[in-house]
TrEMBL record:
InterPro entries: Adhesion/Biosynth-related (IPR050904), FAS1_dom_sf (IPR036378), FAS1_domain (IPR000782)
Classification via Gene3D superfamilies: FAS1 domain
Pfam families: Fasciclin (PF02469)
Domain FAS1: start-end pairs: 37-184, 188-354
Originating organism: Chitinophaga flava
GO cellular component assignments: extracellular space
Name of the protein this chain belongs to: FAS1 domain-containing protein
């Protein structure tokens, strides 16, 4: 008679393995040969690293639609990307109204399948999202590497880095996913509309109005606008009332015209200069305004997953800023402060003034 005891443990072990396999969630990088069997929505739903994106899409009512034939391209912020803007739980999406959340989520998806190799090797390639608004993809050779292999190029979408392999080109049955460094930030309306709606930027609005720059911010553009928040003005002794009492005739125009870059047509993301120049470049490649140059610096260290992000202000003739701080940061961090896209431009929210007005009296 066969002793069943010898079969019991192996059978139980095999049964547990089957149970574990049935409950296992997907990794971020499924094998290429199995990936096409999964749809994009199903993959996001069953991925630990994309659980917050899944929750946002589910709440917005579009996750199941990403199981349809498509094809789609999804620029997918992972959980860390959401954590960096203060979203740590699916409950945090309850504070966002349904229409805004739906628009925000749809802004991360294209109705097309775009692998990295299909983005032209140039800056600011424009694509229309499911939200009906445009986003901008910039593709370049990796820093200090001419003729970078196509799949290894440096690619950013609205200033948000697309991670290198294996987090890009995740092939699925009805599309492709590229994991990005931070969520994309889009608000319908003009620069002027955005500023009016955000009460934490009201002193900047007062400055734009007092110095005859306000009306230009509703024009076609595109404009790139650096915006000090109210706390930046206050720590330098300014209020909306004190701004309203300033006499523009007694100051050089640049003191506030520097922020919308003299209202010249510009469309500059926080990562553009680094993508074009690597970590160094001549002064004439920076953003030039009368008397000064602006360097929005960005680099990412893949060895320890850290960023170096800042904005340097220098004199046009060389040397550091003699009329204000030499270095500024984005308010509440890079993920929150930089690259806020609107219909006629981009806003970057700062934690300090670029120039001290009292140093630029006539």
């Amino acid at each position: 008679m066969i002793n069943m005891r010898y079969y019991t443990l192996p059978c139980l072990f095999f049964f547990l393995l089957l149970m574990m396999a049935g409950c296992r969630k997907d990794n971020l990088t499924p094998p290429r040969e199995t990936a096409p069997t999964r749809s994009l929505g199903e993959f996001i739903r069953n991925n630990y690293d994309l659980s917050l994106l899944s929750a946002a899409m589910q709440k917005a009512g579009i996750l199941d639609s990403l199981n349809q034939p498509g094809p789609f391209t999804c620029f997918a912020p992972d959980n860390k990307a959401f954590n960096d803007i203060g979203i740590t739980s699916p409950r945090d999406f309850d504070t966002i109204d349904a229409e805004s959340l739906r628009r925000w989520v749809k802004y991360h998806v294209l109705k097309d399948r775009k692998y990295i190799s299909e983005f032209p090797l140039q800056m600011g390639n424009k694509y229309t999202t499911l939200a009906g608004a445009d986003l901008y993809v910039s593709s370049s050779d990796a820093p200090y590497m001419d003729k970078t292999p196509t799949e290894s190029r440096s690619v950013f979408v609205n200033g948000s880095m697309i991670f290198p392999a294996p987090k890009r080109n995740l092939a699925l049955a009805n599309g492709v996913i590229h994991v990005i460094r931070k969520p994309l930030n889009y608000t319908p309306g003009t620069v002027q509309d955005y500023l009016q709606a955000d009460t934490s930027l009201s002193i900047f609005v007062a400055a734009m109005k007092r110095f005859a720059l306000w009306d230009g911010l509703k024009e076609k553009g595109p404009f790139t606008v650096y915006v000090p928040g109210n706390e930046a003005f206050r720590k330098n002794g300014f209020t909306a009332d004190s701004i309203s009492r300033m006499d523009p005739e007694k100051f050089q125009q640049i003191i506030f015209a520097i922020y919308p870059l003299m209202l010249k047509s510009k469309h500059i993301f926080s990562t553009d200069w680094g993508q074009i120049n690597g970590q160094s470049g001549a002064v004439n490649t920076m953003i030039s305004v009368p008397g000064f140059v602006i360097l929005p610096f960005y680099s990412y260290n893949f060895y320890n997953n850290t960023e170096d992000v800042r904005i340097d202000i220098m004199m046009e003739k060389g040397g550091y800023n003699a009329n204000g701080p030499q270095r500024l940061n984005y308010r509440n961090g890079f993920a929150n402060g930089a690259d806020r896209v609107v219909s006629n431009g981009i806003l970057h929210i700062l934690d300090d003034l670029m120039l001290y007005p009292h140093t630029l009296r006539k």
